[in-house]
Design brief:
Layout lengths: L2 E7 L16 E2 L2 E2 H11 L4 E6 L3 H7 L6 E4 L6 H6 L9 E6 L7 H9 L5 E8 L8 E4 L5 E5 L6 H4 L3 E10 H7 L17 H7 L3 E5 L13 H21 L3 E2 L5 E9 L4 E2 L3 E9 L4 E2 L4 E7 L4 E2 L4 E3 L2 E2 L4 E2 L4 E2 L4 E2 L4 E4 L2 E7 L4 E4 L2 E7 L4 E2 L4 E3 L9 E3 L4 E2 L4 E3 L2 E3 L4 E2 L4 E2 L8 E2 L19
The protein binds uridine-diphosphate-N-acetylglucosamine (UD1) and calcium ion.
């Protein structure tokens, strides 16, 4: 049977106190609803439908690159009414109902739930909670079969004592939904069309309610306010950190790391506290990352050391590199084996050859450096003339004295030397010395001006 996934995302999320629709708030760097869409993709759903309402335009825009169908729920009249808005677009197979504000549901849990679904079996994900306040309760008959869900606000005293709760996640056939949804009524405490009422309809028809519980209650945790959002983020980050540690990564403190994307690590990687990893980051064997680094979409080769407070983006480091502290490597930076970029150095679109060093206070952009180049403190590639970017080429073994301005386009030949304080605007030949600063004048025994003279 084919699968349609329906993701409810029309609610306002008033308690977030935000102009951003709730489902677009980010967990691990990604809008919550995108986590759910990615999970649906993992299930190989034929179609994914997102039911939008509050902030519909913003949600559509934020998901413009996703292969999803949108259904508009202009007025929020309950979860049953929300699913009904997607009814027209459903196929003939199974349907799975998920929620844009329940981001951590796992594919495996859902696959298990879907397995049991057919014309005679409906799948319902439940969770047993110490404090079930606010949740719909699962009613079971004398045989222990689930037969109905009663919402908290409609529940009697005895029903409120039930700890088994509705997660909201359920799976059934499209034919069943077409039969049951039009029969929902809003005659209840909240005046809403409850999706949960289909459980009693199913039971009445002799359709069995097959319940399952998630392996981890975090999977079914929803977000209503920023505190819950932050708690879910920490719990998710801790779970990710624990997985990394199980794979052999040394985290100095698993509670102080943030991974907003995918972090892949070789053996014996060590990561100090307060680091943020974004996008796709690969760390080779024996890499050490100092405290408070931000690393985005980069590959850092084996045995490289990143010193504290470095910010690295779109960079490839071949191996045995040394970076920071306080270095900023911007996109297009390529460090060959053993290259070194030190404190307060910014690089952008720069290839740095094997064993070359840019140790202090420099800007190197749109440049290629050969091997064993030494760039002195305070060297700047003047790559921008106000309209265009120009390139700087520096040959193997060149030595650039401190406080040099390299006015691009310009090249410095191999084994050439540039005297400190130079402004280099013409190419320097191999093995040459170039100095362009004013000559020093010294006057012996010079009387310094003073006020009383
Ligand atoms: C719902 C369930 C309850 C379950 C709980 C789990 C119903 C009637 N009740 O209650 O049994 O224990 O979830 O969290 O289903 N939504 C729409 N359109 C609407 C109404 C809701 O898109 O018209 C979306 C909301 O954005 C939200 C989700 O559906 O993501 C759940 O809605 P909410 O009002 O929070 O339902 P609960 O009262 O929590
Ligand atoms: Ca809710």
């Amino acid at each position: 049977m084919t699968l349609d996934v329906v993701i409810l995302a029309a609610g306002q999320g008033t308690r977030m106190r935000s102009t951003l629709p709730k489902v677009l708030h980010r967990l691990a760097g990604k809008p919550m609803v995108r986590h759910v869409i990615d999970t649906a993709r993992g299930l190989e759903a034929e179609r994914t439908h997102v039911v939008v309402g509050h902030g519909a335009e913003k949600v559509r825009e934020a998901l413009a690159d996703c292969e999803v169908h949108f259904a508009l729920q202009a007025e929020q009249k309950g979860t049953g009414h929300a699913v009904a808005q997607a009814l027209e677009g459903l196929g003939e197979g199974k349907v799975l109902v998920l929620y844009g504000d329940v981001p951590l549901i796992r594919r495996e849990t859902l696959a298990g739930l879907l397995d049991g679904v057919d014309d005679d079996h409906l799948g319902l994900l439940t969770v047993t909670l110490a404090d079930p306040t606010g949740y719909g309760r699962i009613l079971r008959n004398a045989e222990g079969e689930a037969v109905a869900i009663v919402e908290h606000k409609d529940a009697s005293q005895t029903e409120l004592a039930i700890a088994e709760c509705n997660t909201g996640i359920m799976a059934m056939t499209a034919a069943q939904l077409r039969r049951w949804l039009p029969r929902l009524s809003a005659d209840n405490a909240q005046g809403e069309y409850y999706l949960t009422d289909i459980i009693a309809m199913a039971a009445a028809e002799g359709v069995r309610i097959v319940t399952a519980q998630p392996a981890d209650p975090l999977e079914v945790e929803g977000v209503n306010n920023r505190l819950q959002m932050a708690r879910l983020e920490r719990a998710h980050q801790l779970a990710t950190a624990e997985r990394l540690m199980a794979d052999g990564v040394a985290l100095i403190d698993p509670a102080r790391i943030d991974i907003r994307g995918t972090l892949t690590c070789g053996h014996d990687v060590e990561i100090d506290v307060g680091c943020v990893f974004e996008g796709q980051v690969e760390l080779g064997e024996g890499v050490r990352i100092g405290p408070h680094c931000v690393i985005r979409d980069s590959h850092i080769g084996a045995e490289t050391v990143i010193e504290p407070h470095s910010v690295i983006e779109g960079t490839v480091i071949a191996g045995r590199g040394r970076v920071g502290p306080f270095a900023r490597l911007r996109p297009g930076t390529r460090l060959a084996v053993g290259a070194k970029v030190g404190n307060f150095v910014e690089t952008k679109n720069a290839e740095v050859g094997e064993g070359s060093k840019i140790n202090h206070l420099s800007y190197v952009g749109d440049a290629r450096l050969g091997r064993d180049v030494n760039v002195g403190a305070g060297t700047i590639t003047c790559n921008y003339d106000g309209a265009h970017k120009h390139r700087t080429e520096i040959g193997d073994g060149a030595f650039i004295g401190s406080n040099t301005a390299l006015v691009a386009p310009v090249s410095v030949g191999s084994n050439a030397t540039v005297g400190a304080g130079s402004t280099i605007s013409k190419d320097v030949a191999d093995n040459a010395l170039a100095v362009s600063r004013g000559r020093q004048i010294s006057k012996a025994d010079w009387p310094r001006p003073s006020k009383d003279r």
